[in-house]
Amino acid sequence: MIQIFVPGVAQPQGSKNAYNQGGRCVLVEANKNLPVWRTFVADKLEEANAGCEPMSGPVSLTAIFFMPKPKTVTRLLPHVKPDLDKLIRAIGDAATKSGVINDDSQICEIVAHKVYEADGLPRGVLITLHKFLGESLHES
User: Fold this and answer.
1) What is the mean pLDDT of residues 5-23?
2) Going by C-beta distance under 8 Å and a sequence separation of 6 or more, which residues neighbour residue 131?
3) Reduced to 3 states, what is the DSSP secondary structure of residue 31?
4) What's the rounded Cα separation, in Å, for the pair 87 and 91?
5) Given pLDDT bands bounded at 50, 70 and 90, which one contains residue 136?
6) Do residues 1 and 128 make contact, with C-beta atoms less than 8 angstroms apart?
7) Which pairs with CB-CB distance under 8 Å and at least 24 residues apart come from 104-107?
8) What is the predicted pLDDT for the residue at 12?
9) Rounded distance, CA 102 to CA 98, Å?
10) How far apart are CA 123 and CA 100, in angstroms?
């Protein structure tokens, strides 16, 4: 099992911009902050997994995103952009890049929350990766 806290403002992955380059369509991540964030998360995961083999088989991912809360906001939860599924996508790719897992297709369970940061606590994401403990619905 690996559990780490990555400080910072979590960045979503998923939206793309399309460009015509020499008669070919090229897709580029729309979020310019994504590469730095994903590399930072991957580095923290790799550091936590130093000297260990990648997890094999099905994996469970839990992520709690502590988002910045604007001073004028009174709502309890950040039910605004960025989308939770896009935040998760960046974590899955970072876990693959870090070598903690071989591929994010191994993730069979995701538990995710998006909340506002608390007073005095940093914004960022708490990530837990461990062997999936659930059972298949179709055991042979």
Assistant:
1) 91
2) 1, 55, 57, 58, 59, 60
3) coil
4) 7
5) low
6) yes
7) 106/55, 106/56, 106/57, 106/58, 106/59, 107/58, 107/59, 107/60, 107/61
8) 96
9) 9
10) 23
* CATH for the stretch 2-131: 3.30.1330.70
Average pLDDT, the chain: 93
d(C-alpha 69, C-alpha 54), whole Å: 35
Question: Domain boundaries in the chain?
Answer: 2-131
Cα–Cα distance measured from residue 133 to residue 135, given in angstroms and rounded to the nearest whole number: 7
Report strand pairing: 2-7 vs 124-131: antiparallel
Count the neighbouring beta carbons within 10 Å of the beta carbon of residue 33: 13
% residues pLDDT > 70 (the chain): 96
Main-chain phi, psi angles of 104, to 5 degrees: -70, -5
Q: What is the mean pLDDT of residues 58-75?
A: 95
Average pLDDT over residues 70-85: 94
Type of residue found at 95:
A
